[in-house]
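Cross-check.
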Amino acid sequence: MKFFDLVSLIIYNINRRKGRVALTAIGVVIGTAAVVVLVSLAVGLQKNATNQLYGINDLSSIEVYQGYTSTAMKGGGGGVTISSSGSGGGGGGDGIVYLTPKAIQDISAIPNVKSVIAEDYIQTETDIVFGKLHAYGNIIGVDTSNLADMGVEMSQGDSTLAHGTVIIGSWIPKQFYDPKARPDDPPVTPPDLVGQKIKITLTKYMQDGTTTKKTLQYTVVGMIKETRNQYDSTIYMSMSDVTAINEWSRGTRINRNKEGYSMLQVKATDANSVLDIADAINAMGFQANTAQSVVQSVNSFFLVLQVIFGGVGAIALLVAAIGIANTMTMAILERTKEIGLMKAIGAKNKDIMSIFLGEAAGIGFIGGLGGVILGWGGSALLNVIALSYFASQASSNGGTVPSMATSTPFWLPIFALGFATVVGLLSGLFPAVRAATLVPVTALKYE
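Predicted model, tokenized:
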């Protein structure tokens, strides 16, 4: 039998039982629509979560902290053996692997590392003063002359750091307050600090309980564009200034070859190599943290969620498959004489089998097509309703509105349509084999 003749016969047989085919296909429509809607919901939740993570941190950035060597507790005497390790050259007798200049060199030599920038914190109490206003904020020294090396963008001023200058985060002006303000005074207007001088008052606590204060003056040369992460509430100054402050606070000089830095910020050439770089840094004995690992964990969770949601929809398709098998079995009983006549005039077993398999697959295709259309429309409607609800909640309770609730990837309708067609095909396999193996004489005598 020619292919086009086979297709024409399949279409004719489906059309002459439109009511039964429609009722059978409804089950496939429901199952396919359920798969599309549920998987779209899982994909939408995944995209919304990962979009928020992209705003939390730079995915090409790795934060590196000092590591700790393994300690083995000995029995009996209770002695402790500390094994110094770490190829970074920062392992000490105290079991700490420090972020020394040698460690920076070793990390910089890792493939796909773009830059390594050392950071250190002020180790004493600080008070930020501008006129009569006071503020709080993290003060970090960075071992770079340009914050552009850290991947930040400026909203005002310059990104170049020098001795006696600072660059502030976008939230720092909002953190100023008047300590002498009365309860009925209006809120403090955030000052425009770029180009202005601020004072930082340092407090050192002595061993006898007394305190010593020191006030330094810095020029604000720039403000970082709002990123909604740690940059917003941070004041950056040169590493030399922070080192001098910490040496004054401690009363001793700092040896970076022994004590190292508080943290390193490692930039990768691209986000795809971040996890490999982090693994290499951890192997050196340090602690590497990156938002990329969080994104990977989130993606793995939502992949499992997609499979679960898709499986729930597939259950409905399984029920529909039973309906298709039942419909095709009834068709065999009704068309037994027709099958016998076709065999009597020369139709082969594979021709009979192809006709019934084609009809079953056709029912699956029709139901799948309707399910894809219904599922896509339902997904879009659910997205509108959910976003409207979230927007109303955000307006009354505060918070951010998700960018999407559902998202239908381009491959999902194609997959759902193909899956529904295959389910129909497999459902008609047993009835088709039964029809193909009928004996012509017995079929013609069937009443």
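The CA atoms of residues 241 and 412 lie 56 Å apart. The first strand starts at residue 61 and ends at 65. Passed to J.P. for a second look.
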